[in-house]
Amino acid sequence: MHAPRALRRARLALASVVLASAALLAPGVAAAQGAGGDPTLAQTLFEEGRRLMEAKSYAEACPKLAESQRLRPGTGTLLNLALCNEAIGKTATAWGQFKEALFASKKEGNAAREAFAQEHISALEPRLSKIQLNAESTPGLLIRVDGNDIPAAALGTPIPIDPGTHEVEATAQGYSVWSTSVQVGDSADLKTIAIPKLQPAPTPAETAAPPAPAAPAPSTGSGEGLRTAGFVIGGAGVAVLGIGAVFGVLAAGQASDAERDQALCPNKQCTPQGREEIEAAETKALLSTIGVGVGIAALGAGAILVLTSGPARTEGARAASGQVQARVVPLLGPDGGGVGVLGRF
Question: Could you report the per-residue pLDDT of 85-96, keeping only the tens digit for each?
Answer without folding.
Answer: 999 999 999 999
